[in-house]
C-alpha cells in the first residue's frame, strides 16, 4: 500500500472495506485487548485501522507510542493500513500510514508540510464543512462523513447527517466517502447503498462475536 503517489491520486480506499476505529476506552482500557482485537480484525479482512486515543485516555505518552508501534506492526503483517487520529507526533513516531483529523484538529496544510507521505483522512459533519474543506481535497485520501446515524459511542458527536446528507456530499466529493456513526451489521448496507465508498465503525467491532461476519456485513450492499 505504501506508494503514496498512487494512493494520493486514487487511493483505492473504496475497495478496502470497513475501517476499524478504536481506542482503549472502547475495550476495557486494555492495550492488550485492543491489540488482540486489531489482530483478529485484520485477519478477518479489515484493511484500515485507526487508533483514536482521546484526551481522556489513561495511557501516558510512552504507553501510546508502544501501543501505536505494536498496532502498526500488526497492520503491516496483515497488509492493512494504520492511521492515527489527530496526533502527528504519534503518527510519525509509529510510522503510521496515515492520520485522521477533525475540523478543529491539526491542519491538513501543516500535516502535508511536516509529513508529506502520510495519507490524510478528514472528518466532515455537514455540507457547510464539506464546502469549507474543498481546497483541501487534493491532499486527502478520504473524507469521513458522519455521524450518519445516532451513535452511543462518541459523546460529543454532532447531529446525524442521515442518508440524504451523505448522498448530497457523495454527489459532490472528488475523494472517497467513508460513512461513520451508528454503523452496524444492519445499517451498513443502507450507507453503502446511499453511495458511501466504505464505512468506519467502533461498536460494530467491539461488540462483534464473529469478526468475519462483521467485516462481510460492513462491506455489503443490499
Ligand atoms: N465520529 C463520528 S461518529 C463516531 C466517530 C468517531 C463514533 C462511531 O462509533 P460507532 O460505535 O461506530 O457508532
Ligand atoms: Mg479529532
TrEMBL record:
2-[(2R,5Z)-2-carboxy-4-methylthiazol-5(2H)-ylidene]ethyl phosphate binds at residues 151-153, 182, 202-203. Residues 27-204 form the Thiamine phosphate synthase/TenI domain. It comes from the Bacteria. Mg(2+) binds at residues 86, 105. 4-amino-2-methyl-5-(diphosphooxymethyl)pyrimidine binds at residues 50-54, 85, 123, 154. Condenses 4-methyl-5-(beta-hydroxyethyl)thiazole monophosphate (THZ-P) and 2-methyl-4-amino-5-hydroxymethyl pyrimidine pyrophosphate (HMP-PP) to form thiamine monophosphate (TMP). Belongs to the thiamine-phosphate synthase family. This is Thiamine-phosphate synthase. It comes from Fructobacillus broussonetiae.
